[in-house]
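Exercise 7.
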Amino acid sequence: MIRVLLADDQHLVRAGFRALLEAEDDLEVVGEAATGREAVELARRTRPDVVLMDIRMPDGDGLWATGELASDPELSGTRIVMVTTFELDEYVAQAIVSGASGFLVKDTEPVELLRAVRVVAAGDALLSPGATRRLIERVAGGLRPAPDPEALRELTDREREVLALVGHGLTNAEIGERLFLSPLTAKTHVSRIMTKLAARDRVHLVVVAYETGLVQPGRH
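Solution. The predicted structure, written as tokens, is:
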């Protein structure tokens, strides 16, 4: 069961998300928050797997709340998907730097929202298609700390190959299919890479893949 916390200052939005999520057998809504501060407090109490976080909220917006949750070691297993009306470049970049693992706009199809929750809960990253390339062009320019050269040298040839595919946005299953590996083996490679590079999530790995030249901007 994937446990989800909803954070949005609009009651109708939260109600719609709750109805959509709770119609699924593997998803459970564990709480609702109308402000950023309330979202942080609820997350610390309920320990959700995924938080669907609006950006514009009173009393601490979604970006602030995301930063608070991402920096809390007791919530290292919680993943955050930003869901907003505005797919603005600065919002996308700030959301990822704050620690979000996904970014979707509110007019996303319901099936894509459900997929986002499951993908992020499984440890993958997910961005709305229109945001990905612009994000890389901005974030790879220096919003994330540069990767440690020593750590990069510790990667095996296979791990570099996997990192490049992560940079292209492939999931563990897709990486396994591309490299003729089981999804579990692909996930193991990704986990080892994250450990070696001290990366909190796959979004950071995407940025590293671009910063190191394993993936070139504009080539997917």
